[in-house]
Amino acid sequence: MILKFNDERFKERILGGLKIHNLRTDRTERWKKGQKIHFWLGDPKDMKVTPKPHQFHEANCSSVQKVEITFSDSEQFPMSVIVDNVYLNGAEMEELALSDGFDDLGHMAEWFMDYTPKGFKGRLIHWTKKKY
To answer: Which terminus in the chain has less CB density within 10 A, N or C?
Structure first.
């Protein structure tokens, strides 16, 4: 399975061991434990978008977890993250953000608010033993 990224920072963080999983929508649940992951920078099917797309890493999918991110107007709890039906606390959400390649939890919240302002439902694709 191909896992595409458009940002060079994610490539660097994957190769450096800082990004150890990836949040993706997966409506058909196509990601499965044991599948080979081919990490690509750019889109191998569209040379116009990325002039030099390339595969930069391979790994096996070690596990997949369901994830839901929701937002509220509460100043105390503006965002919640649920992994496999368990709410993460603040420290766990920060750890998830960093391990997914974001600079911090605020950066992750901002990205998802822009991308999916009504919330996010997807899956966490792991290629290490880490689970939440």
So the answer is: N
